[in-house]
Amino acid sequence: MALLRSSAVYQFKITLEGISPPVWRRILVPERYSFWDLHVTIQDSMGWLDYHLHAFELTALGSNKPIEVGIPGDEFDRSVIPGWKKGLNEYFVRPGIAAGYNYDFGDDWLHEVLLEQISPQGKSMRYPKCIAGERACPPEDCGGVSGYSDLVRVLHSPKHKAYPSMVAWLKGHAKNYGPYDPDHFDPASVRFSDSRKRWAKAFSEPG
Q1: HEC string of the chain?
Q2: Residue 16: beta bridge partners?
Q3: Which fold, 8-135+185-203?
């Protein structure tokens, strides 16, 4: 993802639904970003590994018509708008507008994406940037909200018979494992990828 200077900056709060205490992030991105750029930023700031499909769920401005933005199934799939072809400023026109973000259609991780404010860029600031957040991202493929709840319960009980196998399993499913602590998150630890390289890797024809 290109670290860009921008005349305006969007501040989003990303909240993972169905988990208490909540897992959330506050991020700053350039207004020129596409939904694909935002997807990569959410993945990196939350701590997901981008192993699965995703979709933004929007409501057309001025109507109740649902819109899905993500990755079309094929070139003839007209129901899904490619994320790299729709700019954030086409939908997020003022603070208070929200969208849904669904990651992994098996585990169904639903996020609220809320535009909190639009501000001028800060001097000497580079974007994207994660400025706040709480709690670690759930591990990939842990079984959604219910599976995550079971995992946390086991981790809080080292004498549980499933504890050793659960700790071993986590090493391949959690970002920056060291070890996995569901209550820990440090915004300064977030590193952002180049969304153009991520796109090329995902969609380039194999050599």
Answers
A1: CCCECCCEEEEEEEEECCCCCCEEEEEEEECCCEHHHHHHHHHHHHCCCCCCCEEEEEECCCCCCEEEEECCCCCCCCCEEEHHHCEHHHCCCCCCCEEEEEECCCCCEEEEEEEEEEEECCCCCCECEEEEEECCCCCCCCCHHHHHHHHHHHHCCCCCCCHHHHHHHHCCCCCCCCCCCCCCCCHHHCCCCCHHHHHHHHHCCCC
A2: 23, 111
A3: 3.10.290
pLDDT reported for residue 3: 42
Q: Enumerate the domain spans of the chain.
A: 8-135+185-203, 139-183
Let me know how long the chain is. Answer: 207
132-175 pLDDT, tens digit per residue, is 999 999 999 999 999 999 999 999 899 899 999 888 888 877 77
C-alpha to C-alpha distance for 126 and 198, rounded to whole angstroms: 20
Q: What are phi and psi of 102, to 5 degrees?
A: -105, 125
To the nearest 10 degrees (0 to 180), the angle between helices 144-155 and 163-170 is 120
The residues with which 70 forms a beta bridge, in sequence order, are 55, 82
**pTM for the model:** 0.90
